[in-house]
Amino acid sequence: MLRFMKNKILIPVLILSALAAFFSFANGNDGTTSDQRKELILQTVMKAIQQNHLQPRELNDSFSSTIFNKTLTSLDYEKHFFTQEDVDQLKKYQYKLDEGDGTEMVHFFDDMNAAFNKRIDQVEGFYKAILDKPFSFNGNDAIVVDEDKEAFAANDAALKDRWIKYLKYRTLVKYVDLKDAQKKRQEAKDTTLKEIKTDAQLEADARQAIRKSIEYYFKRWHKLGEDDRFTIFVNDITNSEDPHTDYFPPDDKKRFDEQMSGTFFGIGAQLKDDDGKIKIVAILPGTPCWKQGDLKAGDEILKIAQGAAEPVDIQGYDINDVIKMIKGPEGTEVRLTVRHVTGVTQVIPIVRGKVEQEEIFAKSAIINTKSGSVGYIYLPEFYSDFQNINGRRCAEDVALEVMKLKKSGVNGIILDLRNNTGGSLNDVVKMSGLFIDQGPIVQVKSADAAAIPLNDQQAGTLYDGPMAIMVNYGSASASEIMAAAMQDYKRAVIVGSTTYGKGTVQKVMSLDEYRGWLASLMGKTVNYDTIGSLKLTIQKFYRVNGGSTQLKGVTPDVILPDPYAEIEIGERKDKAALKWDEIAPANYRVVPNPVHSQELAALSKKRVDTNPAFSLVKENATRIKEAEDKSSYSLNEAVYHKELDEATAIGKKMEEIEKKATPLDVVNIKDDLAKINIDSLSIRKNNDWLKNLKKDFYLAETVNIVNDMMKYNMKVDARTGMK
């Protein structure tokens, strides 16, 4: 039985009275129609939300209208299919979706899905004729690109006109690319350029390329079946509660678990979709296909068989469907029929095994400076293998990286949480405890309960020396808890830009277990096939100083220029996001040797103001804001090319600055070299990683800040990290 259900004491009378109707047809698999199953899913999801969400929305006309509009725009976000005529016909549901215990929602979905399928077939019927005729790029026409400001096409004629402009714009972009590429090859006197094509030939090539792209686009739409669209619809409902309440069909829940753990059972090959062909990008070291040895990068997968079963031709399959077929239980066999780059076809049997996604795990490096060495830890996710007691956990891995850096004698440590979207709450509490000597790390609060502090119970610290944490707009949830705790304790200096603003706690609940619990109240049993899971917002995070990280995020001590500084981004952009608030602070004490954040910020500002790279970032932020506000693009070649040149000029300036800048001296820890040198792919990935770190000017400035910290700290024992 679910733990959160055990904690319930009273069940609302209205819910009990509704259960009889809820289970009137929900007691078996036999004879259940598709619409009945949809109603069951919707009923279960809505009851779970109303009973367990932190702040459930009232089911009324406002709720119904929100779902109505959100569903239309999420399914047709570019407004390329529905017309206003379609919308008008569906408007009978706009204020009825909160009625009928799910029946009106199902009727709306069925009618909307039928209208959408009709429009897909209609557009597919005329786009080829549009692309049969050459486009002229000398006029003054433009395409609207702001979906929020653009209404649905009024009728069929307006829909076709919208597609003419859309295909013309796509062709213009490709045509200019081809034209510029040919010009560069001519200027470089490329001897492999056998033919100089005319503008008319290049325009025809561009249309042909777009035709192939659109053909594949429609194949994808046709493969997105009714169940997939229904999942989108259910998530439109859950996301109207808040952006992080999500419905998972059974397969999606499995992928979510794999993402959190960083492990799955498969063969260990990275795939890509190359114009409808599924090809191998890379073989991951140490994985089943690496050990088997026959599968190579560049191979095309033609068929897939489960052991000795009949192979399935996968031509035209979506890449996600191919991945599902390749993954499977540990120890089972999958047989891939592949075409090697040599043209030879081979059937390759591979026994599935555990695959670890090394790219999400913590890793470290050493940055050598004139003032001494600085340790760098990269943490892309707060991962934790909840399904395996012996699985990888980020708190333990970061502790190992800290110990390796201490052994290497670094004078300070940088923890990079940029673009880390969060993960395990338990791990962020344990990880924070590596750097403070006991105390609360974060407070969590349910709707009608007192806040609960989550404490670091471990006495002492693993590392107590100078420390900086890098964050940006992509740092969310657990990353914000970590940054906020270290900021409140004044343990580390936070560097970068304001974080995402996700300050809510989610719990994944099985909808089948939930239904079983509801059934038990009525003395009934259920034996349906699984209907999925719900990731449900049940609590809010609060800093130890009492403020929420929700919506506002964490403002760094040292703010560095950010390309997205002038636009709304992250949680703040979502209208369904829960609001910011604050509670009483927890009982905590600032560390004995707090960071001097104001002095560090002042020193950093002097460097940043004279740094050409950061000046260029500010310039780019202005351009991004202008692009955000822009609602249309010209379909005139000269005008488009001028705008393109202006946009690429910043990139060229940045390349020149990087060439002139002195790169960071970044090296691997000696203890890691044996693992890195396991094969050529691992070596190449590591070299690419180090190369990017060496030219990272945000990291370079953070290194300067850590060196500044040395001036305000007592001497640090490089062997222990203790003062």
Provide a concise account of the structure shown:
With 723 residues, the chain is an alpha+beta fold. Helices cover 44% and strands 16% of the residues.
Question: Would you write up a description of this structure?
Answer:
- The chain is α+β, with helices and mostly antiparallel strands.
- Among the domains are: 132 residues, no CATH class; 94 residues, PDZ domain (Pdz3 Domain, Roll), CATH 2.30.42; 243 residues, 2-enoyl-CoA Hydratase, Chain A, domain 1.
- It is built from 22 helices and 22 strands.
- The chain has a 7-stranded mixed beta sheet, sandwiched between helices.
- Strand 8 and strand 9 form a beta hairpin.
- The longest helix has 32 residues.
- 34% of the residues are buried.
- The N terminus and C terminus are likely disordered.
The count of strands amounts to 22
Average pLDDT over all residues: 88
Name of the level-1 CATH class of the domain at 359-503 and 548-595 and 663-712: Alpha Beta
The CATH architecture of the domain at 359-503 and 548-595 and 663-712 can be given as: Alpha-Beta Complex
Kindly identify the CATH topology of the domain at 359-503 and 548-595 and 663-712.
Answer: 2-enoyl-CoA Hydratase, Chain A, domain 1
Cα shape:
globular
The class by helix and strand makeup works out as alpha+beta
Instruction: Please state roughly what percent of the residues sit in beta strands, choosing from under 5%, 5-15%, 15-25%, 25-35%, 35-45% or over 45%.
Output: 15-25%
Oligomer: single chain
Count the DSSP helices: 22
Q: Considering DSSP H and I runs of 4 or more, what fraction of the residues is helical?
A: 40-55%
Gap from first CA to last CA: 49 Å
**Spatial strand arrangement across the major sheet:** 20-17-16-13-12-11-22
Largest sheet: 7 strands, mixed
Kindly report the name of the CATH homologous superfamily of the domain at 359-503 and 548-595 and 663-712. Answer: 2-enoyl-CoA Hydratase, Chain A, domain 1
